[in-house]
């Protein structure tokens, strides 16, 4: 099913990956202590601007700042929309 949203200019739509539920040593993390995910998958990409060509593409897994982007819920799924400049790295 295709999304009914298309980011404009240098904006990117990201689906955050689920938060970690267990530590590396095997301890379970309670819901109240979970960190906001800082990693996600690119779902849609804008066309860029005349001064800025887009470097990320749909399907890339990216790292972004903890407070980057604007949260939105679309068709029952949580997404973040942000400028490509807010993306720190492609994993």
What key phrases describe this protein's structure?
91 residues; mainly beta; 0% helix; 36% strand
What does this molecule look like?
The protein is an all-beta fold and about 90 residues long. About 0% of the residues lie in helices and about 35% in strands. A 6-stranded antiparallel β-sheet has the order 4-5-1-2-3-6, with no helix packed on it. Strand 4 (about 70-75) and strand 5 (about 75-85) form a beta hairpin. The protein starts with 10 loop residues before the first strand and ends with a strand.
What structural category do the secondary elements indicate?
Answer: mainly beta
Proportion in helices: under 10%
**Radius of gyration, CA atoms, in whole angstroms:** 14 Å
Main β-sheet description? 6 strands, antiparallel
Order of helices and strands: EEEEEE
Which strand order does the major sheet show? 4-5-1-2-3-6
Count of helical regions: 0
**What is the residue-mean pLDDT, rounded to a whole number?**
88
Stretches with pLDDT under 50, minimum 5 residues: none
| CA-based shape | elongated
Number of strands: 6
The quaternary state of the protein chains shown equals: single chain
Distance between the termini: 26 Å
């Amino acid at each position: 099913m295709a999304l009914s949203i298309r980011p404009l200019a240098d904006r990117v739509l990201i689906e955050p990956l689920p938060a970690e539920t267990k530590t590396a040593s095997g301890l379970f993390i309670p819901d109240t202590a979970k960190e906001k995910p800082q990693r996600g998958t690119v779902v849609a990409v804008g066309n860029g601007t005349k001064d800025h060509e887009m470097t990320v593409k749909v399907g890339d897994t990216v790292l972004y700042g903890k407070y980057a982007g604007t949260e939105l819920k679309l068709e029952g799924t949580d997404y973040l929309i942000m400028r490509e400049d807010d993306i720190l790295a492609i994993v």
